[in-house]
Structure formats: C-alpha cells, structure tokens
Design a protein that fits this description.
The chain is mainly alpha-helical. It folds into 2 domains: 3-184 and 294-324, HUPs (Rossmann fold), CATH 3.40.50.620; 209-289, Tyrosyl-Transfer RNA Synthetase, CATH 1.10.240. The chain is built from 13 helices and 5 strands. The structure holds tryptophanyl-5'AMP (TYM).
C-alpha cells in the first residue's frame, strides 16, 4: 500500500488541467492506498488574498474536490492551515534548503516575471513548504501534472538531504505519479502554454455550458492545413490534446483523419469539443452546487480530515525533532 499526497492551491476554481493532471489519478488511487488530499491555503497567501476571498476560495475548492469524487470516507481530505505541524516541518526543512537552488526554480523565476511587485520570501521557499506537505505524511506517490515535476525533484532532494545529514533512512523519496507513461500538461485555449487558474485560458469545472461554448468557440486556431499529413500548429495541437482527454477515441480519430486529409473544419471540431467538455463537466457542476449548499457536510469533512491529518503529521514532527536533537530534559 502506498501513501499518496496530493494538493491544490486555493487561488481559484478547479479547471480541466487540475482534473486531468492530478485529480483523475488520485481518484484511481484513493480506495487502495493511504491517501491524503488537501487544500494548500498557506501557499495561497503568496498572492495576498483578502480574508473573505481566502475563506471563500477554500470552501469553493473543497466543494469542487468532493464533487470530482474524492471520498472523505476513504481518503483524508483536509485544509493545510488546519494542520499547523506542517509549518514546523517547513521551518526545519528551510534550514537545509539553499537560497541558490530556490532561486533557480522555474516557478520562482516565472513568478518574478509575473508579479515583480510582490516577490516575497514565501514564493522563494514555496518548494520547501510543498516538500513539507508531502513528506510529513511520508508519502511515496504524488499525483501531479507536469508543471509540478521540478517541485517533486526538490522534495526528493530535501528528503534525501535530511536522511544524509542525520544518517537515517527516515523519509522516503516520493515520486511524481501518473498512471500513464508521462506526467500530463493540459494546455490553455489561448494557443500557448498550460491551462492555469489565473491565465484567462481555462475551462473550469464550475463553468456553465454557455460559458464553455463561448470559451471553446473563441479558442485560438490557424488558417487550416494546406498539405496532407502536415504537422498541426501549437494552438491546434492543444485543442487535440484537450479532445484526447474528454472525447471518445473514435471522435479523436475522426478529426485527426480529417486534419490529415485537409478536410477539417475547425468550427465542427470546436462544436464537438464543446459538447464533450459539457458532457464531462455538467454532472460535476451540479454536484459542486449541491455540496456548497451543505455547510454541515463541509464542516464535518474538514474537521474529520484535520484530525486524521494531524495524527499523521504530529507523529512525524515528533520523530523529526528527536532525530534533529530536540530531546526532553
Ligand atoms: P496547483 O494548484 O497549481 O495545481 C494542482 C494540481 O493540478 C495540476 N495542474 C495541471 N496538470 C496538468 N495540466 C495543467 N494545465 C495543470 N495545471 C495544474 C498540478 O500539477 C497539480 O498537481 N504547488 C501545488 C499545490 C501543492 C501540492 C502540494 C501538490 C502544494 N503542496 C503537495 C501536491 C503535493 C500547486 O500549486 O498546484
């Protein structure tokens, strides 16, 4: 049995990238493994949310998680800030994380570009907090999308460094995990880059069919293939990537063939894609709204989750303190 940890920042609604990059794999694992699924609301502070927005986002993301099928009866579902032990492990790991390696992290460099007015220390040490989230439960598998690969490498490094420093084999080195061969990257609808929460290029699980239609119809394409078996441009490839995850293989084949034969009409492709996305998201959207209205249920889920997560986390922190040399008098 593996121990599995997966998380999501509470900085916006869940989108197709989150689902197909991380949640789908988690769903396949939750019944057979010791699974922890949490909302990374400490990480969310790097963007300085207003208190009401912070709380509202946590609640929304929690409801969305549950609506995807994450079962709090079998997995431990919790909110990161309900488990303060993680902040102690984060502090301890920070002592062995070097500024140079943190500055070289791709996500940090990207943040410097995107939010030059708010380059806070939390952004720099983001991978350390993420490592703490994972190794505090001694996880060995972490279902994530491609964008988190480097963070997982750093998690392994921090775990290994701790073990070497104290000559123990205490923390396992966790792997980024996907059931397929590779980690997944779901692209956005703007033709380039990954689908993101705040890039304005995403389809959210809570989007209405009308919103989905509008977004897909506006997605970037090109002027169409001009020679048989021509390599598609990036924006068109991206639409096929999304189609691959939401549509039937026969649908994908139909459009791939018509692209290769230069008979494709992007309008038809978008219409079909809209239909298949709506078919996939609509039941989830209905459940999100039901769950959001059930305050008693949400409260029950997070309190039970916090208790279970704290039990596991506090055991680790107790043992880590002992290993480091904090001992009772
Ligand atoms: P976040 O909130 O950006 O994304 C949550 C999960 O969704 C995946 N994902 C994608 N996968 C494929 N294509 C995309 N376009 C796409 N966009 C997002 C991410 O890879 C991730 O698996 N740092 C994390 C949150 C976190 C965490 C953790 C995750 C904090 N601690 C411990 C796992 C374990 C983050 O910002 O994910």
């Amino acid at each position: 049995m593996d121990t599995v940890v997966s998380g999501i920042r509470s900085t916006g609604n869940l989108h197709l990238g989150n689902y197909f990059g991380a949640i789908k794999n988690f769903l396949k694992m939750q019944n057979e493994n010791n699974c922890f699924f949490f909302i990374a609301d400490y990480h969310a502070l790097t963007t300085h949310p207003k208190p009401d927005d912070l709380h509202g986002n946590i609640k929304q993301v929690l409801a969305e998680y549950l609506a995807c099928g994450i079962d709090p009866e079998v997995a431990t579902v919790f909110v990161q800030s309900d488990v303060p032990e993680v902040s102690e492990l984060y502090l301890l790991l920070n002592m062995n994380a070097y500024v140079g390696e943190l500055e070289r992290t791709a996500s940090f460099k990207e943040k410097i570009r995107k939010q030059p007015d708010n380059i806070n220390a939390g952004l720099l040490t983001y991978p350390v907090l993420m490592a703490a989230d994972i190794i505090i439960h001694k996880a060995n598998k972490v279902p994530v999308g491609k964008d988190q690969e480097q963070h997982l490498e750093m998690t392994r490094r921090f775990a290994r460094r701790f073990n070497m420093m104290y000559s123990v084999s205490y923390f396992p080195e966790p792997d980024a995990y996907n059931f397929g061969k590779q980690l997944i990257k779901i692209p956005g609808l703007d033709g380039t880059g990954k689908m993101g929460k705040s890039e304005g290029n995403g389809i959210f699980l809570a989007d209405s069919p009308q919103e989905i239609k509008k977004k897909v119809m506006r997605a970037v394409t090109d002027t169409g293939p001009t020679a048989p078996d021509q390599e598609p441009s990036e924006p068109v490839k991206n639409l096929f990537t999304i189609m691959n995850v939401v549509s039937e293989p026969s649908t994908v084949k139909h459009f791939t063939d018509s692209y290769a034969a230069c008979t494709i009409r992007y309008g038809d492709l978008k219409k079909q894609l809209t239909e298949d996305i709506v078919k996939f998201t609509e039941p989830i959207r209905v459940r999100i709204n039901d769950i959001l209205n059930d305050k008693v249920y949400l409260h029950k889920v997070v309190s039970a989750g916090a208790e279970k997560a704290r039990e596991s986390a506090s055991k680790t922190v107790r043992e880590v303190r002992e290993i480091i040399g904090y001992r009772p008098f």
